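We close this part of the discussion by returning to an individual protein. The sequence in question and its structure tokens are set out directly beneath this paragraph:
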Amino acid sequence: MALPPSSRKVVVAAAIDGAPTFGDVGAIHVTAGPGTSAAPLVQATLDAATTERTMLLTELYRRGPLWRLRAVGQGYDHGLAALARGYGVDIAG
């Protein structure tokens, strides 16, 4: 899948529905690389979550002509809809 040339950032987030939190889940391992059979180029472990129900995991962003990956690990106690609204995504309901 190719992104339009005007794309500047892709945000990867996760949310938990119900009572569990990311503190209950434990460490989250993020890896990225070219294709499924190659060794990962980037690895990160996000393991400081406590009460968060939504977590911003990574950002893939354009810097000049290159794409870069940043591990974020920022957690929020509110749901995914509130996080999406913070990025300007219109959520119905």
In short: The two ends are 30 Å apart (CA to CA). DSSP finds two helices and five strands in the chain.
